[in-house]
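Protocol step 4 of 6: structure prediction from sequence.
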Amino acid sequence: MVNVHIGQSSPNAYWEYIGPIWCTEAVMSEEQRRTLGAQAYAKAMQYELDYGCCPQCVLATVQEAVGIVDDQTVKASHGLSGGGGLLGEGVCGALSGGLLALSAKYGRDRDKLEKGRYMNNFKKSRELTERFRREFGGVTCKELQRQFTGRTYDMWDAGEYKAFDDARGKQCAHATGTVTQWVIEML
């Protein structure tokens, strides 16, 4: 059983019990951040294996671990799975979930649209995307399908989806866990 130590999903309870101490975001050491990231990796990977829908798995785990993602954001990410509508043409759903999580923390609020571009969020998002590309050899779902299996699939065709699911093994779950871990470490 994976044990990501979580508490309430309130904005003031970002970090919970990790090992022998209680800490908050402001006092979390790099080692504690890495520990929580590793726990989140395992939980997000298991969510993906059990339930699918990689962006939701990333966001649900981030929500449970640090509390910055609300239920509406998890729900809204559903259509981003499989590169957007299961078409494979857009950004990997796990990466999309990670980008949404970073934006939940660093993004521009609705009431501040006229206040500038909030470049820090773009920098964090770029860092995550570039790291993802280096690690997995692409950023779109189809690029990852090709990297993981040697070909692409029509995920709207039941036989093709089954073939993809069999061929990918745990690689999509690994990508989901990896993005989640990186995001936790970046927050």
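Step 5 (inspection) to follow. Residues 25-186 form one domain.
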